[in-house]
Amino acid sequence: MRINSWFKATALSALLAFPVLAKPSFTEYAEGLQQEAVERGYDAALIEQVFASLQYHERVVTADRNQPERVETLDTYLPKRVSETRIRMARERYQRYEEQLKEVEARYGVQGRFIIALWGLESSFGRFMGNHSVPSSLATLAYEGRREAFFRSEFFHALDILAAGHIELDEMKGSWAGAMGQSQFMPSSFLSYAQDFDGDGRKDIWGNQMDVFASIANYLKSLGWDNSQTWGREVKLPENFSMEYTIPRGTPNRAAWLREWARTERTLAEWQALGVRRLDGRDLPERDIKAALILPDNEGGRAYLAYDNYKTLMHWNRSYYFVTSVGYLADLIIADQ
Predict the structure, then answer these.
(1) How many Å apart are CA 220 and CA 193, to the nearest integer?
(2) Alpha-carbon distance 10 to 3, whole Å?
């Protein structure tokens, strides 16, 4: 008993000797960001402007912690994301911007219907871009701490965009998570892929339609888009089809998912030999291309043969539901034409 009491007392003394530091206030955290901004060499006037505007947004933290966990299937997801209204709007804008899309496609090699589909699904054709201050949202999420390194890095990327003069601070609005403009780019994606298509010196994904289209196209092209192919097709599987030929759900990261893609992809002729058919039962196309088999809802749900462009779209958003909705909408834009 004496030994046990001594051990407890020693442990308590150790804890008291190394007290847990209290989390700094947001103001104190912002002061640390400001000091780092000074050390990075940003213009003093920009630093003063940004940090004078910086605010902690509890709603942003609440949104991050309480993202909905709905039981969803592709059959319930697609009608909501690719509604009749969105299809109609996508077709109307595809026709309205036909000439502009042709210009972008000629330069970047990305079909206009996919640009319109991504534009529509990300920001409802620029109507809903978010109204949160991007620097404040990113600073708030960095302070919250769940993904501090990521959001702290994005905060300084946002400063880079402001420093380059692409947008004014009071116009730098986005989603609660910091995704910006009509294409909903995070600041790091903006710096990597945003385009100044009309040569006015600004990469304006908020208000310049040609910059928006070109930025979406450049993102896809930079990651391997092939405009000689489409995204994939829904297919019919034979009875008792082995799931070993499919990419399993729940891969922990993109690298692991790409390894599964490489393991499972086959030519259309090989899928044909395994009994895979078009949705209406006809043979698969006789084209010398490879595809992976995607089952967004696992066995018993819809099945898709996904081409390399599907893989590119999965870099934009690693969600089978989102990527399938992009392809689905892109197909419907030109259906019956």
Answers:
(1) 9
(2) 10
